Amino acid sequence: MAPAVLRLFFHDCFVNGCDASVLLDSTSHMESDKAAEPNDSLARLRHHQRDQVLPRARLPWPCADVIALASRDTVSLLGGPAWNVPLGRKDSRAANVSAADAYLSSPHANLTELLNKFATHGLDA
To answer: Boundaries of each Plant heme peroxidase family profile domain copy (predicted)?
Structure first.
């Protein structure tokens, strides 16, 4: 589940910032980020394990903070680095499917395409 949790985090943050918009469902006024092709790869987490990370009960913290904390803790528990997670994010009320398509890698991207996409966000290999 660790790769799925970390993937959820960067799929959320790469679009409109770390605002949990990737969790929003489509409405009559807005198409969800979930509809973007790159987010097809999040389906396993969304359908089978999301409730383990983000329970359906109302959380006392923004979902955006919970995604960030879950990502940090998952990486750390598996022996990776830990980092400070400033809290206080606001959960979005809007999604942006076109930005998700533009800023996220296709689930079919090769390594070169992935490295280039991460580089646009200031990340290297």
So the answer is: 1-125
**Is 25 labelled a binding residue?**
no
Q: Where are the domains of the chain?
A: 2-119
122 is in an annotated binding site: no
19 is in an annotated binding site: yes
Name the CATH architecture for the domain at 2-119: Orthogonal Bundle (1.10)
Q: What is the pTM of this model?
A: 0.80
Catalogue the active-site residues.
11
Widest CA span in the chain: 43
3-state helix, strand, coil in the chain (%, to 5): 55, 0, 45
Give per-residue pLDDT as tens, 57-102. Answer: 456 778 899 899 999 999 999 999 999 999 999 999 999 899 898 8
What would the mean pLDDT of 99-118 be, rounded to a whole number? 88
